[in-house]
Design brief:
The chain is of the alpha/beta class and 369 residues long. The protein contains 15 helices and four strands. The protein has a four-stranded mixed beta sheet with strand order 2-1-3-4.
Length: 369
């Protein structure tokens, strides 16, 4: 039995790898997507364009403006002289934020009175605007602390100290790139698997398999093993790039990560074989894989928190293996989550994989006979 399965597995590997275009598709696009996502998929703001409308020529106003200019998060693009210049610079998107300092700003501070500072932000992109406001508030808070230290006055009786666990610098890239490992592994595995049986039917070699000593289960296993090994190799390559190129911390155990990876591939291959068993042509298999992957990515929690989705949609995500694998990836990478705390995710992926492979086997036998 195993000799027959090994022969079919080798045959599948040769079919995939003998075509130069197939070899390129397996390796090059995932690396390109990893680089694009790694550098582009970020919530961090750097060099936010801002304009200054400073009606005060005092020392305090100059120090505050210098604090914004010296921050890597902001870049001054304009100095405004009149009130009516504020709206055009925001409307034209020349500046995302305008800082307006009143004429008595320095005088009020030197007299020990609160001084008013107005921050005007382009709110067309609410997430970006909120981030810019948060950055501005942190600079103003630091300015207040330094001003009190130099010019006297009592510090506030209580103060807030922020500490971010698992991502101390709040690098959104650390959040996105572990998720990209799962996303690209699913993409490659689904494409290779969804086209395997459909390719046999389209090329007319499916009937030849029926006259071999191979049983339906053995044919299915022989189709699954190449996708499994390709998925392992693909994920390993992406993990190495994430750790050594993007310098995402890897705090957990490789055993925990690869246990989750193996179970995730089991479920992805089962779903891919279901699609391939239903498809008559490779085009149908490709479309079927596409129709599955788009909602799978959206409902995985990759970019949108599952907790923010409607209750019915949250229930649908329970059928998505990528949802569980992302928890494993981010837990192992950033938190060093031990094996036993991820058992729930492992059991869920194993259950999805077992059911999907059973359905794929039934469909395969049904389609054969």
């Amino acid at each position: 039995m195993w000799r027959r399965i090994l022969a079919l597995t080798i045959k599948e590997f040769l079919t995939i790898l003998k075509d130069k275009r197939s070899r390129v598709v397996i390796v090059v696009p995932p690396l390109i997507q990893l680089m694009v996502f790694g550098y582009a998929a970020t919530f961090d703001l750097k060099h936010v364009p801002f304009a200054v409308f400073n009606e005060d020529r005092g020392i305090a106003a100059r120090e505050l403006v210098a604090a914004f200019r010296g921050s890597p998060s902001f870049e001054e693009v304009a100095r405004l002289a009149q009130d009516r210049e504020i709206a055009p610079v925001i409307d034209s998107k020349q500046a995302l934020m305008v800082m307006r300092i009143g004429p008595r700003f320095s005088a009020d501070l030197l007299a020990g009175r609160p001084a008013q500072l107005q921050i005007i932000v382009d709110g067309r992109n609410s997430n970006t605007a909120q981030l810019a406001v948060n950055y501005a508030q942190s600079i103003v808070k630091r300015f207040n602390t330094e001003w009190i230290a130099r010019h006297g006055g009592s510090a506030p009786p209580a103060y807030t100290e922020m500490r971010a666990w698992f991502n101390p610098n709040l690098e959104s890239r650390w959040f996105f790139i572990p998720g990209i490992v799962g996303l690209l592994t699913l993409l490659v595995t689904m494409l290779v698997t969804a086209l395997s049986v459909a390719r046999e039917r389209e090329q007319g070699t499916f009937d030849q398999l029926l006259v071999t000593p191979l049983r339906p289960g053995e044919i299915l296993l022989g189709k699954a093993l190449p996708s499994f090994f390709i998925g392992i190799a693909e994920a390993t390559l992406i993990i190495l790039v994430a750790v050594f190129w993007f310098e995402v911390p890897f705090l957990g155990s490789p055993l925990t990560l690869y246990t989750g990876l193996a179970l995730f591939l089991l479920s992805a291959i089962g779903l891919g074989l279901m699609i391939s068993s239903l498809a008559v042509t490779q085009q149908q298999g490709l479309l079927g894989a596409f129709f599955f992957m788009v909602p799978a990515i959206i409902l995985s929690g990759f970019a949108t928190p599952i907790e923010n989705m409607p209750a019915l949609v949250q229930d649908l995500t329970l059928l998505n293996p990528l949802r569980y694998f992302l928890v494993v990836l981010r837990g192992v990478f950033l938190e060093g989550t031990p094996f036993h705390l991820l058992l729930h995710q492992f059991f869920a992926m194993a259950a999805i994989g077992a059911v999907a492979l059973a359905i794929a086997a039934w469909l395969f036998r049904h389609r054969m006979y």
